[in-house]
Automatic annotation (TrEMBL):
Organism of origin: Physeter macrocephalus
Keywords on record: Cell membrane, Cell projection, Coiled coil, Cytoplasm, DNA-binding, Membrane, Nucleus, Phosphoprotein
Phylogenetic placement of the source organism: Eukaryota, Metazoa, Chordata, Craniata, Vertebrata
Localization annotation: Cell membrane; Cell projection, Lamellipodium; Cytoplasm; Nucleus
UniProt xrefs under Gene3D superfamilies: Pleckstrin-homology domain (PH domain)/Phosphotyrosine-binding domain (PTB) (2.30.29.30)
Subunit structure: The SWAP complex consists of NPM1, NCL, PARP1 and SWAP70.
Transmembrane segments: none
Family annotation (CDD domains): PH_SWAP-70
Cell membrane is among the record's keywords: yes
Protein purpose: Phosphatidylinositol 3,4,5-trisphosphate-dependent guanine nucleotide exchange factor (GEF) which, independently of RAS, transduces signals from tyrosine kinase receptors to RAC. It also mediates signaling of membrane ruffling. Regulates the actin cytoskeleton as an effector or adapter protein in response to agonist stimulated phosphatidylinositol (3,4)-bisphosphate production and cell protrusion.
Name of this chain's protein: Switch-associated protein 70
Domain PH: 210-306
GO molecular function: DNA binding
Gene: SWAP70
Amino acid sequence: MGGLKDELLKAIWHAFTALDLDHSGKVSKSQLKVLSHNLCTVLKVPHDPVALEEHFRDDDEGPVSNQGYMPYLNKFILEKVQDNFDKIEFNRMCWTLCVKKNLAKSLLLITEDDAFKVWVIFNFLSEDKYPLIIVPEEIEYLLKKLTEAMGGGWQQEQFENYKINFDDSKDGLSVWELIELIGNGQFSKGMDRQTVSMAINEVFNELILDVLKQGYMMKKGHRRKNWTERWFVLKPNIISYYVSEDLKDKKGDILLDENCCVESLPDKDGKKCLFLIKCFDKTFEISASDKKKKQEWIQAIHSTIHLLKLGSPPPHKEARQRRKELRKKVLAEQEELERQMKELQVANENKQQELETVRKKLEEAASRAAEEEKKRLQTQVDLQARFSTELEREKLIRQQMEEQVAQKSSELEQYLQRVRELEDMYLKLQEALEDERQARQDEETVRKLQARLLEEESSKRAELEKWHLEQQQAIRTTEAEKQELENQRAVKEQALQEAVEQLQRLELERKQALEQYEGVKKKLEMATNKTKSWKDRVAQHEGLIRLIEPGSKNPHLITNWGPAAFTQAELEEREKSWKGKKATE
């Protein structure tokens, strides 16, 4: 909350200073009441006009100083502020109060909106003391960021010349001097207004809006599963996506926390450069335009989640804090060096005073004891020699101290140069780490691909060996079956040959039997014709003679003429019939 309060006080200080028209350090109560009401409105703090009247109720109708306004501002406004207001709207309100009085638009090559963004950036980078200024180190940092955003090369020599011509009586620039420095194009020569404006907007997004990365990517829908191009904006704890880069039509947010993770996905469904963001309740599939963009987004999101796990602020805020701490350390060292110089100077002055006192005493002693001059002459010579020696020693000490001061100044300059070199080395190390991380990921991808290919080759080789064994087994089985079939074929051919021969014999026997049948048939026809004349006779003597007919399969009776034409049962029946006839006769 302390950081937010300091940030708000800087913008309010500009507004208060703008209302102080005669530079007396005081503002009328009516203006302060209007300012307080506007602050409560934009900061979404309940406005209490009664408390305002109570605070300013006295007999003095004159203006109120900044120190007199601060207690009310802290108690009734700043202590009630929550982080739920629009910071841009708040800054815009304070900017509106001070811009007309201080900004000369005709001399600038940038728009008023760009000047407003530079004003907000100034409040972010300025020192925490009033009146607000931005020190040369922060000016160099801001100009470097703008030059990088414009795609140009940083001219260190040009900035060193600017620092040489810098007013030694000032510790830094005011906000209006900074706007004039950027607006006059001194460090953006060769760049058009649109390029400068885009660079200011990019630095504003990074430092003020905490935009860590932004750009167009394709997003897969959760319901219709279609792919749509969106403008993504990455901040320290959220990823917002919009229809376009004007940020007017917001489509949704991806809330980030320490439990989220980002993973690379293989190409699928015709989409390339895919990666996945896993959150607590949802997952988001996103497709970048190329592999470089994909890796940049994955690394940026991974770094953001890592910062959330560590509870660290955004990188630019952490870097600003480190620069402030470094300046405090250097300032403390300078103050310590100045203190030592003052101590040496005081000691030297004391020694001079002591020498002067001794000299006066000697003169007084010489005037009072002229008669003893010869007697004390040797003593005076000794004293002068001793004090001369001490003076030479003091001069030597002074010279040594001056050399130490020069050496400390040189060491301080070397230290500052080393700090700049370390910052450059840090940037190069970051680039080298990024390249190494990319190389490791590529190596891991190739290694996984080789392992997968080796695994597939091993499985295919095992499958081929299995097929080879099965083929050899099938060949052996086929040869055995072939041999068995050959044997069966030979047996069947032999059996067929025997069956053909048997069939031929049967055909011959059938022909012979048919010839015999024809002969028997002719004989039967002849016998039939011969027996027709005997039918009547046989009808009268059925018991003695009967036509030859097919008999039963029962045993046949034998008569004098051969086998009987009737059975035993028929014979018994006829005997009974004869006996009955005889009994009746």
